[in-house]
Amino acid sequence: MPVKVMIPTPLRVYAGKRDSAQFSVTTVGEALGSLTKEFAELRKHLFTEDGKLRSFVNVYVNDEDIRYLAKENTPTKDGDVVSIVPSIAGGASSTGTLVDPELRRACAASNSGNAD
Prior knowledge:
The chain is of the alpha+beta class.
């Protein structure tokens, strides 16, 4: 049973609308690398141009935050679940509409019961 990588709702548009992908890997970094190799559009949303995980992207292995483990070198084993949780910030403009279209989609999905 490979490692399962959960793709959050706002990023599924860049991953063929899939909610997860599975890979035979030994670290979180390998899992994220495999994910962005399979879905190239995800790379710019998860990593900076110099290959660092973006500061607003939180990653967990079985509910453990990798920032408190070995970060991208955190080991994985078959059956582990890697969850990507992008921080979402923003709010309403003076007209009361959401500013970011991606945030708007995430909120719509959440309201329809399809949120992560």
